[in-house]
Design goal:
Length: 246
C-alpha cells in the first residue's frame, strides 16, 4: 500500500470520526444543567443491586465487560514484558551487591510495610462500599511489598517474592474474572450478569452480588501483575548483565 493510499484512508477515517464526534456533541445536555440521565440511571441500577459505591457498580456490574478489557490489557502488557525482558544467551545473572540503607529509612519502610498491606487489603475488600477497589488496592499491595527493597535490600524482596507464584496469581485473577462471567450463562442470564448469587444487604461487605467477587479477582490480578512487572525490570537493573566479550 502506497503512502498516498494510506493518507487517503487516514483522511476518510478522520472525517468520519469528526462527523460522529460533532453529532454526539450536539446531543449533549446543556453545561451546568441539573439533568444527568446517565448518572441517574447508574445510581438507580447500583441501588437495585445493593451496591453502595456507584463507581464499583458501573465498573463491575453495568459495564463489567469493559473492565474485563482493561484487566486483559494489563495482563497482556505484563505477558509481553516477561517475554521481552527474558534472559538471553548473551546475558548472565550476577549476585546483587548488598544495599546500604540509612537506619531511619529502614525503620520507616519496615513499619509502613504491614500498614500498607492492611490498607491495600481493605481497599480491595471494601471496593463495593467506598472509593477504591481492585485496581487501586492491587497497586497498593504490590507497592507495599516493594518497601522491602527500599527498607532492606534486594535479597529481602526476593525471599517474599517468588515470581512464579505471582505469575500464577496473575493468570488466576484473569481466569477468575472470566469464570465469574461464564457463571452468568449457567445461571440462565448473560455473560457477567449480576444474577449468579444474591445481592445481599445494602452497605455491608456481603452486598453487591458478584461485584465484590469481580473486584477481588481484579485486585489479585493487578497486585500480581505489578509485582511480576517490577520483578522483570529489577532483574534487568540489578541481576542481569551482558556476557563479557560479546
Amino acid at each position: 500500500m502506497s503512502r498516498r493510499v494510506r493518507m487517503w484512508i487516514l483522511a476518510v477515517g478522520g472525517l468520519g470520526f469528526a462527523a460522529l464526534f460533532a453529532a454526539a456533541c450536539l446531543r449533549l445536555p446543556g453545561f451546568g444543567g441539573d439533568s444527568h440521565p446517565y448518572g441517574e440511571r447508574a445510581v438507580r441500577a447500583a441501588l437495585a443491586h445493593r451496591t453502595a459505591n456507584v463507581i464499583a457498580a458501573v465498573n463491575f456490574d453495568q459495564r463489567a465487560f469493559d473492565t474485563l478489557g482493561e484487566e486483559s490489557i494489563l495482563f497482556a502488557a505484563v505477558l509481553g514484558t516477561v517475554v521481552l525482558l527474558r534472559q538471553t544467551r548473551e546475558e548472565r545473572e550476577v549476585p546483587p551487591e548488598p544495599a546500604r540503607v540509612p537506619l531511619l529509612v529502614r525503620r520507616y519502610a519496615l513499619v509502613l510495610l504491614p500498614v500498607a498491606i492492611v490498607v491495600g487489603l481493605y481497599v480491595v475488600a471494601h471496593g463495593q462500599l467506598s472509593p477504591g477497589g481492585g485496581f487501586q488496592g492491587g497497586v497498593v499491595l504490590a507497592t507495599a511489598l516493594h518497601l522491602l527493597y527500599i527498607g532492606a535490600d534486594y535479597h529481602a524482596l526476593e525471599r517474599v517474592r517468588p515470581v512464579g507464584v505471582y505469575e500464577f496469581g496473575d493468570a488466576a485473577g484473569e481466569g477468575a474474572y472470566l469464570v465469574l462471567g461464564l457463571a452468568g450463562f449457567v445461571a440462565g442470564s448473560s455473560f457477567l450478569a449480576n444474577s449468579v448469587i444474591g445481592h445481599g444487604t445494602f452497605n455491608t461487605l456481603a452486598s453487591g452480588g458478584t461485584v465484590p467477587l469481580l473486584n477481588m479477582a481484579v485486585g489479585m490480578e493487578v497486585a500480581c501483575a505489578v509485582v511480576v512487572l517490577l520483578a522483570r525490570f529489577l532483574d534487568q537493573a540489578v541481576e542481569i548483565e551482558e556476557e563479557k566479550g560479546t
